[in-house]
Amino acid sequence: MENLKVSLIGVPTDVGAGVRGASMGPEALRVAGLGRAIAAFGAEVRDCGNLAGPSNPELPAVNGFRHLAEVAQWNLAVHQAVYAELSEGRVPIMLGGDHCLAIGSISAVARHCRETGRKLRVLWFDAHADLNTATMTPSGNIHGMPVACLCGHGPEMLTGIGGEMPAIRPEQIRQIGIRSVDEGEKRFLHDLCVEVFDMRYIDEIGMRATMEQALAGVDQDTHLHVSLDVDFLDPTIAPGVGTTVRGGPTYREAELCMEMIADTGQLASLDIVELNPALDHCNMTAELAVDLVESLFGKSTLMRMHRNYR
């Protein structure tokens, strides 16, 4: 970890969400000691501060999208910031903010991978599939659409941010912990052949086997991006989110996910999103998120070797 250079990028907006409050997420993560926790592993941590963008106008949906122009502005800023840090050989950590921001971060990662010839694997930890479109969405909230946009299904001002459409292919993503999927999304997931490890699957085969499958094929040439929506976690341990869904992973299951990712040694970028301090209890969800990030960067009970999941 001594040569690892990490950049924290705050993105204080809830413009893509239906519930206000995720805009305070970046500061809650800082208060919980995220930078210090990563630095403790020998990494050089640079806090880039917060990006600036339009305020939340709190308007109804127009043609199936809420706040499309504002979402596009924020995501363009995220794309540019994440791409700049990747170009310097750093590991960008995007502190959200709602999950619509993954359009900007992952499109930047995909662009970087195309230019450097690396394989991309996206691990999407979430209670929701986030594969809605304007015609399927029940709300118009764009934090329910980032996977669709990244796969090329959405308005060009979002799908084209990375300079190539689609930014990613469905086979590059693995979704883990899913337990709330809208009716239209179920068919769309099936049609796109997105690999989804929902909670029933995890219940049936266990988290270890699930993660082995999600990480299968990750090797030294793989850029591993983790997009962590804190509503992935069961709300009994992570109440500070605007879209809680019962029946999520336990603390130990979540830790195992992060520890197995650390075992690969290939983590190269990270989103932490949907943390809503207004709904939290004594910052416990932010502290849990920091705990999980520590495991991503190598915290473990015993010394462990890097491994490939073939």
TrEMBL record:
It comes from the Bacteria. InterPro entries: Arginase, Ureohydrolase, Ureohydrolase_dom_sf, Ureohydrolase_Mn_BS. It catalyses: L-arginine + H2O = urea + L-ornithine. It is an enzyme of class 3 (hydrolase). Mn(2+) 1 binds at H99, H128, D130, D229, D231. Its EC number is 3.5.3.1. Gene3D superfamilies: Ureohydrolase domain (3.40.800.10). GO terms for molecular function: arginase activity; manganese ion binding. Binds 2 manganese ions per subunit. Mn(2+) 2 binds at D126. Keywords: Arginine metabolism, Hydrolase, Manganese, Metal-binding. GO terms for cellular component: cytoplasm. PROSITE patterns: ARGINASE_1, ARGINASE_2. Belongs to the arginase family. This is Arginase.
